[in-house]
Design a protein that fits this description.
Blueprint: E1 10-14, H1 19-30, E2 34-39, H2 42-52, E3 60-64, H3 70-84, E4 90-93, E5 99-100, H4 108-136, E6 139-144, H5 157-179, E7 184-191, E8 203-204, H6 212-222, H7 227-239, E9 244-247, H8 249-261, H9 265-278, H10 306-318
Parallel strand pairs: 1-2, 1-4, 2-3, 4-6, 5-8, 6-7, 7-9
Helix pairs in contact: 1-2, 1-7, 3-4, 4-5
This protein binds nicotinamide-adenine-dinucleotide (NAD).
């Protein structure tokens, strides 16, 4: 059954200092929700609270904590309930960051940083607020995944791992809530490209991909949807209690592509994304890499030897020249 009104409900939004999270906090406040706007950046949260302004000002309160800190998340869940004097009806686990790094080059500290926020932050938020959502009698968990929770791309393995993880975790939760007859709806959100700050604040740690400036420029070119439009689509999905909320025309195309092509989507994704992510110049890789045929003079490899030989050859070709690795650029803590 559709939600009739947001009036007087308590919504908790993480990553509410920028982009989709800020737009969602403002949209929900406009519809009469009481909003706990959470972010790791104090000035960003203050900005959101100020933008809510006027009569809605007292409906929106800011909270500063790191979603990858489990204890802090649980502490804030108690604090928010006490401050507003009611259990939360809605948790939107939206806070997220991006990382560009190949599996070969990825540093564990970058991988763990991303998983801490994009995956564990979502799980902590869900479990910290689940008791309140059940107590409210009409709760809703909204976890933000991505189109990268439906398909993978090059140099995004950590982001893909987190976003596929969010999708699996969220869909399982939905089945459980129904099986146990608990009053909690569950939605997984898959945005396409949304024009936010995420590219500027991403970590790029790769010798073969774009640098920060190239990446931000490319991101701006391919993003089709504004944060306000994204928020309106997500809020409509919440109202309709949709299990899966696709945001933007590109998200619909990718969903269709994945469903019709199955695993073969990788050929299309590679052909489209490799030139963009690896660049067209010296860093370029073939869109659809084919193993090179053995040279005429070369003794043909046996079936068992061939893959090993090809792998060794590819590794030799891919090895960057000494000193050519690009320094990590523009990361945020
Ligand atoms: N923008 C896109 O194209 C796009 C596409 C698909 C999915 N998403 C997802 O949407 C969500 C929102 O991203 P956005 O595009 O609005 O980005 P954004 O950078 O504009 O906003 C993200 C917010 O999260 C906050 N944040 C970062 N780390 C945090 C932490 N440890 N604890 C608390 N807050 C933290 C940031 O301070 C920032 O205010 C993310 O989960 C992102 O992965 C974005």
């Amino acid at each position: 059954m559709r939600l009739k009104s947001f009036q007087g409900r308590l919504a908790v939004v993480t990553g509410a200092g920028s982009g989709i999270g800020r737009a969602l906090a403002l949209d929900l406040a406009r519809r009469g929700c009481r909003v706990a706007a959470c972010d790791i950046q104090p000035e960003a949260v203050e900005g959101t609270v100020a933008l809510a302004g006027g009569a809605r000002g007292d409906r929106v309160r800011g909270y500063v904590f790191d979603v990858s800190d489990r204890e802090a998340f649980f502490r804030h869940a108690d604090m928010i309930k006490a401050d507003f004097g009611q259990p939360a009806n809605l948790i939107v686990n939206n806070a997220g960051v991006a990382l560009g790094a190949s599996v070969r080059e990825m540093r564990w500290e970058d991988f763990e940083w991303l998983m801490g926020i994009n995956f564990w932050g979502v799980c902590y938020g869900t479990q910290a607020f689940l008791p309140q959502l059940i107590e409210s009698g009409d709760g809703h968990v909204v976890n933000v995944s991505s189109i990268y929770g439906m398909i993978s791309g090059p140099l995004t393995s950590a982001y893909n791992a987190a976003k596929f993880g969010v999708r699996g975790y969220t869909e399982s939760l939905r089945i459980e809530m129904r099986a146990e007859g608990l009053p909690v709806s569950v939605s997984c959100v898959h945005p396409g490209g949304i024009r936010t700050n995420i590219a500027n604040s991403s970590r790029l740690a790769t010798s073969r991909g774009p640098d920060q400036a190239e990446f931000s420029k490319w991101f701006e070119r391919i993003t089709l949807t504004t944060p306000a439009k994204a928020a309106a689509i997500i809020v409509d999905g919440i109202r309709r209690k949709r299990p899966r909320i696709l945001v933007g025309p590109d998200a619909h195309v990718i969903d269709l592509m994945q469903r019709t092509l199955g695993i073969r989507y990788q050929w299309v994704a590679g052909a489209l994304l490799n030139p963009l992510m690896y660049g067209k110049s010296k860093n370029a890789v073939a869109a659809s890499p084919q193993p090179a045929p053995p040279a005429a003079a070369e003794k043909p490899a046996t079936e068992a030897e061939a893959p090993r030989k090809r792998a060794a050859k590819a590794a030799k070709a891919a090895k960057p020249a000494a000193g050519s690795a690009r320094a990590e650029s523009g990361g945020v803590a």
